Amino acid sequence: MPRFRLQPRPGTGRIGLPVNLLAGLLAGVLAGCARYTPLPLATTPPLAPEVSALPGAPAPHEPLSVAQVVDLALANNPDLKAARLRRAIAAGQTKQARILPNPSLGGSILPLLSGVGTVTAWNISLSQDIRSIITYSSRHRAARDSEQQVAADIVWQEWLVAGRARQLATDLIIGARSRPLYGAARQLLADRNAKLDQALAAGNTTLTIVAPDRVALQAARMALDSFDQTQLALKHQLNALLGLAPDADVPLVATPDLPAFDPAAIRASLPSLADRRPDLIALRLGYGAADETVHQAILAQFPDLVLGPSASSDNSKVINAGPNATLGLPVFDRNQGALAIARATRAQLHAEYAARLAATTGEVGALLGQAEQLSAQLDRARRALPGARLAAERAAAAFGASNLDERGYVDLVSSHFAREQEIMTLELALLDRQIAIQTLVGAGLPTVDLPRAPSGSMQR
User: Fold this and answer.
1) I need a surface site. Which of 15, 178, 288, 372 has the fewest CB within 10 A?
2) R_g over Cα of the chain
3) Which helix or strand (DSSP H or E) is residue 310 part of?
C-alpha cells in the first residue's frame, strides 16, 4: 500500500512545528487514559453455608447474643454491601464536580495548492467556556451535599437492618422458650383424646361428649403447626439478612440482650430527633443540593460565553493573533425551563421533609402508647399467672388422688398453659414495639454527626 506524507512545496516554508505540537499533545492525552479491566459477575449465590464462615463470626457452635447478630448483619448483609458501594459513586461525582471543563484547542493546516502565496497557511485557537466557571462553586457544593446525602441514606439503611436483626433474633429466642408450652398443651389434649377414643370404642361414652375434646385437640395442633411455620419463616429471614444459606443454623442465647428502654428519655429526645435520624439528615442534605441547583439555574441564565486566544497565518506569511469570543444570544432559551424544574424540585423536597418529620414524631409517639398498653396488659396477665399455676398444681394432685375427673384436670391445666402462652405473646409484642422504637430513635446504632448546615461534613 502506498504511503502518503504531507510536505510543503519547495520554497514555501516548513510545517513541522504545528504538526509536532499537535502530535505531542495527542501523545500526552493518550498516556493519561485509564485502561479497561473486566469485572465478571458471580456464577453462584454468595451465601455462607454456616455462621462460622461469616467474617467476624465467633467460635463455631457458640450461641450468638442479639448484639452479635446485629454486628454480623451490619458486616455481612448483602444489600448493605451493595449500598455502601454507592459512596464511591457519589465521591466520584463530587470529584467530577471539582474539575473544570477542559479548554478546547483548535487548529488547522492549509497547504498551498495554487495561487500567489508562498507558504502553508495555519491557524490555532484556545478557548474556555466561561459559564462553567461561573457555576463551579455551586455545582461543587451541590455534589458535596449529594455525597453526604448518600452516606446518610446508607446509615439509615444500617439502622433498618440492625433493627430487623434485633427483632428477628428476639422473636426466635422468645419463640424457642414458648414452643414447649404449645407442645405440652397439644400432648395433654392428645392423651385425653386417646383415652376418650378407647371409651368410645368400648361404648362408655358418646360422640357428643367426645366432640369438644377433638375440636380442642385440632385447635392445639393447628396452633403448634402455625407456630412452627412462623419460627421457620423467621429463621429464613434472619439467614437472608446475614447472608447465610436458608438451611444454615444460627445458634442463639436463651435470653435477648437489648439496649435499656426508657420511655421518658425517648420522649424527651424527640425534639432533637431530626438532628440524629439519618433519613431526615439525608432529606435535609438533598434539600441543600436542590437549593444549590436553583442557584445554578439562576447563574446559568448568563449567556453562553466562550473566550480564548487565537492566531493564524495566511499563505503570504501574514500572521494575526488576538482574543476570540463567542457569545450566545438569549433570544429563546433563557434557562427558564431548568429554573422552573429546579424550584419545583426544591419545593417538593421541602414538603417531603416536613411530612417525614411529622410522621417520625407521630410514629414514635404511637409506638410508645402501644408499648404502655402492652406493658399494662402484661402486668395483669402476670398477676393472674400464679393463680392459674396453683389451680393446675392442685388439679394434678386431685386427679392423682382420684378426687377430680380427667375433664376437669385437662381444663385447669389447659387454662394454665393458655395463661403462659398469653404472657409469652404479650412479652414478644412488647419487645417488638420496644425494638421498633429503639430503631426509630437509633438506640445503640451507628450515628451521623453533622452540623445543621446542609453542606457540613459527615463522620461515622
Assistant:
1) 372
2) 38
3) strand 305-313
Hey, how many other C-beta atoms are within 10 angstroms of the C-beta on 103?
Answer: 12
- Cell readout for 423 is 404472657
Instruction: Tell me the DSSP string of 120-184.
Output: -EEEEEEEEESHHHHTHHHHHHHHHHHHHHHHHHHHHHHHHHHHHHHHHHHHHHHHHHHHHHHHH
- Shortest CA distance to 178 belongs to which of 377, 414, 425? 425
Residue with cell 456464577: 43
Name the pTM for this structure.
0.80
Spatial distance between the Cα atoms of 156 and 91, rounded to a whole number of angstroms: 18
Residue 316 cell numbers, joined: 503570504
Phi and psi of 122, rounded to 5°? -155, 160
Closest CA to 300 of 271, 274, 337, 253: 337
Task: Name the DSSP letter for residue 100.
Answer: P
Mean pLDDT (the chain) is: 85
CATH node for 47-76+135-300+335-441:
1.20.1600.10
Close Cβ partners of 227 (under 8 Å, ≥ 6 residues apart) = 175, 178, 179, 182
34 contacts 19 by C-beta, under 8 angstroms = no
Integer Cα distance of 4 and 399 in angstroms:
115
How far is the CA of 65 from the CAs of 49, 237, 292, in angstroms? 20, 17, 46
- The grid coordinates of residue 114 equal 495554487
Domain boundaries, the chain: 47-76+135-300+335-441
Dihedrals φ, ψ of 105, to 5°?
Answer: -110, 125
Best CA proximity match to 22, nearest among 129, 119, 124: 124
Quick one: which of 96, 102, 100 has its CA closest to 142?
96
Determine the angle formed by the axes of helices 278-299 and 336-400, rounding to 10 degrees. Answer: 170
Lowest mean pLDDT among 213-217, 351-355, 358-362: 213-217
Please state, in angstroms and rounded to a whole number, the distance separating the CA atoms of residues 14 and 378.
99
User: How confident is the model over 226-246, as pLDDT tens digits?
Assistant: 999 999 999 999 999 999 999
- Compute how many other C-beta atoms are within 10 angstroms of the C-beta atom of residue 401: 8
Cβ density class 420-437: b for 16+ within 10 Å, e for less: bbbbbbbbbbbbbbbbbb
Indicate the length of the chain as a whole number: 460
Q: Rounded to 5 degrees, what are φ and ψ at 427?
A: -60, -45
CA distance 6 to 9: 10
